[in-house]
Amino acid sequence: MPRATNKPASRDRRRKVLKQAEGYRGSHHRLFKTAKQAVDHAGKYAYRDRKAKKREIRALWIARINAAARNYGMSYNRLVFGLHKAGMNVDRKMLADLAVKDEEAFAKLIEIAKSAIAGEPIPKDDEVSEPLDSSEADTSS
Predict the structure, then answer these.
(1) d(CA 42, CA 16)
(2) Is the predicted pLDDT of residue 141 greater than 60, yes or no?
(3) Domain boundaries in the chain?
(4) Residue 51 has pLDDT above 60, yes or no
(5) Does domain 61-140 bear CATH number 1.10.10.10?
(6) Would you tell me the crossing angle of helices 7-20 and 32-70 to the nearest 10 degrees?
(7) What is the dihedral of CA 68, 54, 81, 114, to 10 degrees?
(8) Where are the alpha helices (DSSP H) in the chain?
(9) Radius of gyration of the chain from Cα atoms?
(10) Distance in angstroms between the alpha carbons of the first and the last residue of the chain
(11) Is the dihedral of CA 78, 82, 84, 89 positive or negative?
């Protein structure tokens, strides 16, 4: 009796791996063994980097918030502490977006954080200060 090799399923499995390896260079898209290794590694990198992407985006938000807060003479950690103390639930994504697109609203949040740290009542709309120029911001930190 001839040896059964399950030829159709084996061919389909190999064809699927080689299809996933399209666009790879050299033997990685031609030979099944190296293509399988390359596809496996690509899957591991994709899984790992989907998690890392979230960390990198959060770090970018924090850098943007810190840069904008320092224009008003305040550091990132003091801003977040002040907003938390004032009971403001603004996440870092929203803060970064405000820092880039709406400086007036961001300045209001800075004032709220400063007053919360000092233990003062939250300031009114007309009491918002202007950003410091670059020479004043460098000396205050």
Answers:
(1) 15
(2) no
(3) 61-140
(4) yes
(5) no
(6) 30
(7) 20
(8) 7-20, 32-70, 76-85, 92-101, 103-118, 134-140
(9) 27
(10) 84
(11) negative
The contacts of residue 25 (CB under 8 Å, 6+ apart) are: none
**Cα–Cα distance list, 77 to 9, 67, 74, 83, 122 (Å):** 58, 12, 9, 10, 19
Q: How would you class 58 by CB atoms within 10 Å of its CB: exposed for 0-12, middle for 13-18, buried for 19 or more?
A: middle
Cβ contacts of 40-49, under 8 Å, gap ≥ 24: none
Q: Which two tokens stand for residue 47?
A: 């899984």
- pLDDT digits 0-9 by tens, 78-96: 999 999 999 988 999 999 9
Phi, psi for residue 90 in degrees, rounded to 5: -115, 120
pTM: 0.72
Give the single-character DSSP code of 28.
G
> Residue 4 has what pLDDT?
82
